Amino acid sequence: MNIHEILKKYWGFDSFRPLQEDIIRAVLEKEDVLALLPTGGGKSVCFQVPALAMDGLCLVVSPLIALMKDQVENLSRKGIPALAVYSGMSYHEVKQTLQNAAFGNYKFLYVSPERLESSLFLEFLPALKPSLIAVDEAHCISQWGYDFRPPYLRIAALREELPKVPVIALTASATLDVQHDICEKLNFGKDCVRFQQSFARPNLSYSVFQPASKQVKLIEVLKNVPGSAIVYCRSRKRTLQIAELLKQHHIAADYYHAGLNNEERTARQDNWIRNKTRVIVSTNAFGMGIDKPDVRSVIHFDIPDCLENYYQEAGRAGRDGKRSYAVLLYDLKEPDELFEQADLRYPDTETVKKVYTALMNHLQVPAGTGEGMSYDLDIALFAESFKLNILEASYGIKALSQEDILYYNEVSVSSSKLVFTTSKTDLEEFEKQQPALEPLVKALLRSYEGIFDYPSNIYESLLARFLKVPVKTVQEELMQLHRYGIVQYQPQNDKPQVLLLKNRMYQDDFKIDHKALTLRKEKYLLRSAAMKNYTGNEKSCRSVLIGNYFNDHTILPCGICDNCINQKNIKLSAADFSIIFSEIENYIKVDPLSPAELMQKFSPGKRKQAWTVINYLLSENKIKADKNGKIVAA
Fold it and tell me: Which of 108, 201, 307, 320 is surrounded by the most beta carbons within 10 Å?
C-alpha cells in the first residue's frame, strides 16, 4: 500500500495534516529527520505510516512506559502487531519479547532508552533488522532541555551498530539550542532535514490572570466556558482540594495524580474522556498520549516550571479546531519562587551524595553490587526514615537519574503477567466444568501467542474490550483461574521503582559531573526567566511570545489572547469591514488557506485590519478552521 492507502485503512483519514506528508516522504528517502510538531500535531503518524510502508521493524525509543503501553494497545486495536520492552520486566520476559520481535510478524518494537545497551538487547539487534529508528520525546536527549534523560544518549551507540538505518526524532517543544543538541547527540549529518510546524494555535485563546482569589477566578472561568476541562496543579494534595471545591459548586470533577493505583487512574481518565466527569484536576502526570479533541479549557492553577511544559499542557485544549481557552492563574510571588527553588531543584554534590548513600542503605544494596537490579521505592517512607525533606530526596534522586546512576519511574512499571500452569487436556476438562470462564480462557489463548509455555505481559483492558465486559470482571475471573491452579496470574505492580544502572559506589569513589550540574541549573534559571516574562508581559501577543521562544518567528498576533484584546485599537468602518470580508470569502473559495497564508494575501498595511475581521468571523462561525488548520467557509 502507498502512504495514503495506509492512512485511510488504519487511521480513517483521506489526507495528511500540514507537514506530515513531507516528513513521511523524507523518512522514506532514508533521510535523518527532526520533526517539531505541537501537542496534538500527529507525531505518531509521522513514523508509523512510513514504517508500515517499509519492510522490516520500526524501533521506537520512548521514555514513558505508560505512553508505550498506550501506543502498543492503540496499534493492536488497529490490527497492527506491536511489542514493548521496558524496565521492570524480567530477563525471561525481555528475551521472549525480543524473540517475538525478531522472528514474529511484528512491525513496531517500543524500547525504553535504558534497555538499549543491555547485553540481551544487543544480542538480538542483528536479528531485529530495524528499517527505521523513531526517537519520541527527543528533547530528552539534551542536557539543556527541561526533561533531560541520560539513557537517551545511548541512541548514538545504537546508530553505530545500525549505520544505514534512518532516524526520525520527534518532539513537541524544543528551543533552538535544544534542536541543535538533538541533532548533534543523534549523530545527524549536515544534510539532515528539519521540519517545524507553526506554534500558532489560531483557535486557542491564551490568558494570564493574577486574581485576588484563584479559587473564585477558577469557578468563574469554568462557569463561563462550558465543556470539558483540565485544571493543572503543582501538588497532589491540591488536586484533591480543588476537585472538592468544584464539586461544592456543582461542577462534576475528579482528581488524578501518579500516587493513585493503576485501576483508579484508568477509571478516572476513562470517565473524563467519556464526559462522565467534566473537569479533571491533575498534576502534570496527566495528559500525555490522551487524544481527547473536545477539551474547551486548560487552566493552570499554579505557574508551570517552564514554557515547554506550559505549551504542551495548554495545547491539550481545542484539538478539534473550535475556540478554546488556556488560562494561567498565578500569585505575584510565584515567578520569583521559581528562581528561589533553583538550589533545591539542582542540589550541590554533597547533598546528592547524602541522598545516594541514604538510598543505597534504605534499599540494602552492598557496595560493589546492584547493577541491573530493580527495587520498589516508597519515597515518603524513605525520606522519613533518613530524616530528609521529601523534596530534597526527590530532587536528589532526579540528579542521580540525570547522572545515569539510576532510573526512577514514579508510575507503575510492570504489566500484569500470566502463564498457563496446566496441561491442554486438563484445560479442556476445566472449560467443560466452568463454562462461565471459557470465554476468558479462549481470549487469552487467541491474544497471546506462547502463553502456554512462557509468562506473557497481558493487558486486562484489551481483554475486557475483546470480551465486551468491564475490566473489573476480567480481573476477578483471572484471579479465579489463578485460584483454580489453571494459570499463574500476577497483577500489575503499581509501586514506583528504582532501577540501578551502576553498582553501588564506595563512599570515597562517589563522583558526579559538577560542571554539567551547574550548567543544567543555569539553563533552568533561563527557563524561569522566560516563564516570568510570559506571565508579567501585558502588551505582547501571547502566541507570539510562545512562538518566539521556540524559534518560530512567523506567528502573527493572534487577536484573541488577553493582551491582543486589551491592545486592540483598530477601528473599522462598515464599508472597510465588508470589503475585507468579501476578499476573504473569495480567497478561501479558491483554496483553503492557513491563517498565515491568508494574511499574506493582504498588503502589509492592511494586515492588522484583516486579522481583526478574520477573528470576528471565526468567533461568529462565519468561517472556521478545518482539521488541517486551514480557513474554510462555515
Answer: 201
The CB-based long-range contact list for 530-535 (8 Å cut-off, 24+ gap) reads 530/306, 530/307, 531/303, 531/304, 531/305, 531/306, 531/307, 531/310, 531/335, 531/338, 532/335, 532/336, 532/338, 532/339, 534/208, 534/307, 534/310, 535/208, 535/210, 535/303, 535/328, 535/330, 535/334, 535/335
238 and 295, same domain (yes or no): yes
Report helix angle 349-363 to 390-402, nearest 10: 100
pLDDT per position as a tens digit, 243-292: 999 999 999 999 998 788 777 888 898 899 999 999 999 998 787 767 78
Considering the domain architecture, whether residues 100 and 29 belong to the same structural domain is answered as yes
DSSP E strands in 331-421: the ranges are: 374-376, 406-409, 416-420
**Exposure string over 125-150, b if 16+ CB within 10 A, otherwise e:** beebebbbbbbbbbbbbbbbbbbbbb
Dist. CA 168–CA 132, nearest whole Å: 8
**Amino acid found at 453:** D
Pair type for strands 228-232 and 193-196: unpaired
464 is written with which cell numbers? Answer: 475486557
Strands 108-111 and 57-61: parallel
Residues 296 and 371 in one domain: no
Asked if residue 500 and residue 353 are part of one domain, the reply reads: yes
Closest by alpha carbon to 595, among 34, 265, 158, 202?
202
Nearest to 288 by CA among 51, 462, 62, 543: 62
SS3 at position 173:
coil
Give the C-alpha distances (Å, rounded to integers) separating 533 from 214, 219, 306.
Answer: 20, 26, 11
Give pLDDT tens digits for 18-60: 899 999 999 999 999 999 987 777 889 999 999 999 999 999 9
HEC string of 123-161 equals: HHHHHHCEEEEEECCHHHHCCCCCCCCHHHHHHHHHHHH
Judge contact between 220 and 250, C-beta under 8 A: no
Q: Which helix (H) or strand (E) holds 295?
A: strand 295-300
The distance of Cα 316 from the centroid of its chain, to the nearest Å, equals 11
H helices, E strands: number in the chain? 27, 21
- Residue 44 CA to residue 42 CA, distance in Å, equals 6
Beta-carbon neighbour count of residue 333 at 10 Å? 9
Separation between Cα atoms, residue 60 and residue 41, nearest integer Å: 18
Under 8 Å between Cβ of 27 and 132: yes
Same domain, 167 and 80: yes
Q: Which domain holds residue 394?
A: 339-412+496-525
| C-alpha distances in Å from residue 386, one per residue of 2, 189, 498, 506 | 60, 49, 17, 19
Q: What pTM was computed for the model? A: 0.72
